[in-house]
Amino acid sequence: MKLYGDPGSGSTRRVLAALYHIGAEFDFELIDLFNGDNRTPQFLALNPNGMIPVLVDGDVVLWEASAINLHLAEKFGADLLPSGADRMLTLQWMFWAGEHWRQGPPALFTERIVKVAMGLPEDPRALADADASIRKFATTLEAHLKDRRYVVGDRFSLADIDLAATFTHLSRTFPPYAEFPNVMAWHQRLLDEVPAWARTRDEVEQRMVPLMAKLGGGK
Ligand SMILES: N[C@@H](CCC(=O)N[C@@H](CS)C(=O)NCC(=O)O)C(=O)O
Fold first, then answer.
1. Average pLDDT for residues 114-127, to the nearest whole number?
2. Which InterPro entries does this UniProt record tie to the protein (predicted)?
3. What order do you get walking across the sheet with 2-5 strand by strand?
């Protein structure tokens, strides 16, 4: 089994967190987006979108981190995908994460990291739209997490992974999460209680800190 990605990518991180949590063995190939590795004919044959992550598991070639994680959870019988009604709630939050929750943060990444690195000015309108989207959906998550330790049931699941991924570049992109104390407390709980989540946070920083120094992006 081989994962193609970049430890600094929030989408790759979702799969790495699942793999570490499961304890699965895998090979890893770095696809450096800043080097154009995602645009080679070989990589485009795996994912015509030119995006990471991609998992190759025998004859199975999968892109989209959520699909990869569902494959891993089923293959290894992992506790990351609950059974019964909680299974559908897990999928509900995973779909919500992709459709709504993760819409704003990539725009902040573009404005505050990519454009700065390219020497382009920030677009205040794009930043305001991203913040408005984040606040709108964080209000939903904030209420949901009021009396809960994890997003679904009483343990870490793929829903937590898909939602918490937006914290990956918190110190570089500044989403307005501090206004949502239950969301902040939940994310801290993941770091404190889920070794795989803390490990991927450390790997993100090891990758991003020198990269930012080189590219000049982030603040
Ligand atoms: N919906 C995809 C998103 C993947 C994605 O946005 N990957 C980014 C890195 S985090 C990427 O490969 N960007 C390169 C590009 O857009 O050209 C998933 O969940 O896997």
1. 94
2. Glutathione-S-Trfase_C-like, Glutathione-S-Trfase_C_sf, Glutathione_S-Trfase, Glutathione_S-Trfase_N, GST_C, Thioredoxin-like_sf
3. 27-30, 2-5, 54-57, 60-63
Same-domain pairing of 204 and 131: yes
Tell me: do 49 and 126 sit in the same domain: no
For residue 36, report the distance from its CA to the centre of ligand 1, in Å. Answer: 13
Q: List residues near ligand 1 (CB under 6 A).
A: 9-11, 33, 38, 50-53, 64-66
Say whether 27 sits in a helix, a strand or coil.
strand
**Ligand 1 atom nearest to CA at 51:** 12
CA of 147 to the centre of ligand 1 (A): 33
pLDDT at 218 over 60: no
Last-in-domain residue among 46, 76, 106: 76
DSSP 97: I
Specify whether 37 is located in the same domain as 58. yes
Which tens digits make up the pLDDT trace of 179-198? 999 999 999 999 999 999 99
Asked if 151 and 145 count as a contact pair (C-beta separation under 8 A), the reply is yes
Q: Which atom of ligand 1 is nearest to the CA of 31?
A: 12
What is the distance in A from the centroid of ligand 1 to the CA of 52? Answer: 5
Domain that holds residue 125: 85-215
